[in-house]
Design a protein that fits this description.
Shape of chain B: globular
CATH topology of the largest domain in chain A: Alpha-Beta Plaits
Number of helices of chain B: 9
Helix content of chain B: 25-40%
Number of domains of chain B: 2
Helix content of chain A: 10-25%
CATH topology of the largest domain in chain B: Rossmann fold
Distance between the termini of chain A: 50 Å
CATH superfamily of the largest domain in chain A: Aspartate carbamoyltransferase regulatory subunit, N-terminal domain
Strand order of the largest sheet of chain A: 2-3-1-4-5
CATH architecture of the largest domain in chain B: 3-Layer(aba) Sandwich
Strand order of the largest sheet of chain B: 7-6-5-8-9
Largest interface: A-B, 17 and 17 residues
CATH architecture of the largest domain in chain A: 2-Layer Sandwich
Shape of chain A: elongated
Largest sheet of chain A: 5 strands, antiparallel
Mean pLDDT of chain A: 88
Oligomer: heterodimer
Number of helices of chain A: 3
Order of helices and strands of chain B: HEHEHEHEHEHEHEEHEH
Number of strands of chain B: 9
Largest sheet of chain B: 5 strands, parallel
Low-confidence stretches of chain B: none
Mean pLDDT of chain B: 94
Order of helices and strands of chain A: EHEEHEEEHEEE
Radius of gyration of chain B: 20 Å
Structural class of chain B: alpha/beta
Number of domains of chain A: 2
Strand content of chain B: 5-15%
Chain lengths: 153, 306
């Protein structure tokens, strides 16, 4: 029998591949990056076999390169992900995602009595890494938002 | 190097280094010896209390008047443009164009930090919701230093609601700068939060948790009492079980150290029996008075007058 060897998710000519996304976080990454509203071609796959992680997800976006702020957003839900930039079907840049020390404006503070939830104030957090997990310390109310409570604005 | 706090807001006790804290306490001592000093010479200080407060507001406003300044502001939002829906930002921007300094209490967590970012003049946080109350912390530190002669190497016992009491959290973190040893006495439901405990561990200091008050009295330098509130207990029966365990009575102080002093941020309900009031170790009323000197010191330092 013919063993077909081809890419499960199509190759792209120019754009970005986000690889090694935890399998259950693919849809979250799509949402965070606003890809459901993107005019670019977007391909994704999930529960794909991965040597490193068992199962993984992957997203490919044509003709799109990301700003550091977008990369930071991904880091909060998919810290294992790697970012690959493609030009003319060739990998031109590959980088793993790093959790930033500070994040601004795109995560909601978990404290309902925080000024950022009461007035029109952009959020600011210090990222605290603790035993492999992260929590966000609000610049304003000084309360912590834990990883499982992170909600994107 | 000389220390200057000119034009700097005080939002959280962590905004000040231990040296800056001691600098404020030194100035406060000067005001305790001579409280009438006309340094403000008619300057205007705004006192914006978005929620009611007795001690803090009166002590700030007294401090301003003793310094020769004028007070503008409000003691509740009723009748102000806030009740018409004005944003905090607009209120602060407006007031900061009138006053030289703003003292603010607001029920929203983080509101003081935000105000300091939009204001043209410095802000002193007089309490932002459940978050910070740094002038209370400074007056606690002043009271501790005054009664013990030092802030270093003291054994501090905190009693009551250690989970929700913002004053105890700030005080623990401030005292971590001065190598304190901590005892925490509380019902299990109201234990010191893990974030504060972590802070002590990171500072390499010792702490012990107790559920009984009697055990720790003989070796405490400071006993800091707080109120255990009924509404903090999901089960009223649990409150009934513990409510009398955290009441300090005069006879319990029999074996306390000679230098031991009892502190309380006030208002007290019943957690310190009135028979303690006559004991020379009771210090809570002087503690409240010290708030005046500390607030005079802060206003003078932030306006660059001391």
């Amino acid at each position: 029998m013919d063993k077909r060897k081809e890419l499960i998710v199509s190759a792209i000519e120019n754009g970005t591949v986000i690889d090694h996304i935890p399998a259950d976080k693919v849809f979250e990454v799509i949402k965070i990056l606003g890809l459901e509203h993107s005019k670019n071609s977007v391909y994704f796959g999930t529960n794909l076999d991965s040597k490193k992680y068992g199962k993984k997800g992957i997203i490919k976006i044509s003709e799109k390169y990301f700003e550091p702020e977008d990369i930071n957003k991904i880091a909060l839900v998919a810290p294992t992900a790697s970012l690959i930039e493609i030009k003319d079907f060739e990998v031109v840049k590959k980088q793993s995602i790093e959790i930033p020390n500070h994040i601004e404006s795109f995560v909601k503070c978990f404290n309902p009595n925080c000024v950022t939830n009461k007035e029109s104030v952009p959020t600011k957090f210090k990222v605290v890494k603790e035993e492999g997990k992260i929590k966000l310390k609000c610049h304003y109310c000084e309360k912590y938002t834990r990883q499982n409570n992170i909600e994107f604005i | 190097m000389s220390i200057s706090l000119k034009d700097r807001s005080l939002i959280s006790i962590y905004d000040y280094t231990p040296e800056e804290i001691c600098h404020i306490l030194d100035i406060a001592e000067d005001f305790e010896n001579n409280r009438l000093q006309n340094l403000l010479n008619g300057r205007v200080i705004a006192s914006l209390f978005f929620e009611p407060s007795t001690r803090t507001r009166l002590s700030f406003e007294t401090a301003i008047q003793l310094l020769g300044g004028n007070v503008i502001g409000f003691s509740s939002t009723a009748g102000t443009s806030l009740s018409k829906g004005e944003s905090l930002k607009d209120t602060i921007m407006m007031v900061s164009s009138y006053a030289d300094l703003i003292v603010m209490r607001n029920p929203v967590d983080g509101s003081a930090r935000y105000a300091s970012e939009v204001s043209k003049v410095p802000i002193i946080n007089a309490g932002d919701g459940a978050n910070q109350h740094p002038t209370q912390c400074l007056l606690d530190l002043y009271s501790i230093r005054k009664t013990q002669g030092t802030l270093e190497n003291l054994e501090i016992t905190m009693v009551g609601d250690l989970k929700y009491g913002r004053t105890v959290h700030s005080l623990v973190q401030a005292m971590c700068n001065f190598k304190a040893k901590f005892n925490f006495v509380s019902p299990v439901e109201l234990k010191m939060p893990s974030t504060v405990i972590q802070y002590i561990k990171d500072a390499g200091l010792e702490y012990t948790e107790y559920t009984e008050l009697n055990d720790v009295i003989p070796h405490s330098d400071i006993i800091y009492m707080t109120r255990v509130q009924r509404e903090r207990f999901p089960d009223p029966l649990e409150y009934e079980k513990v409510k009398n365990s955290y009441i300090l009575r005069n006879e319990m102080l029999e074996n306390s150290k000679p230098n031991c002093r009892i502190l309380h941020p006030l208002p007290r309900v019943n957690e310190i029996h009135t028979d303690v009031d006559e004991n020379p170790k009771a210090y809570y009323f002087q503690q409240a008075q010290n708030g005046l000197f500390v607030r005079q010191a802060l206003i003078a330092a932030i306006l660059g007058l001391k």
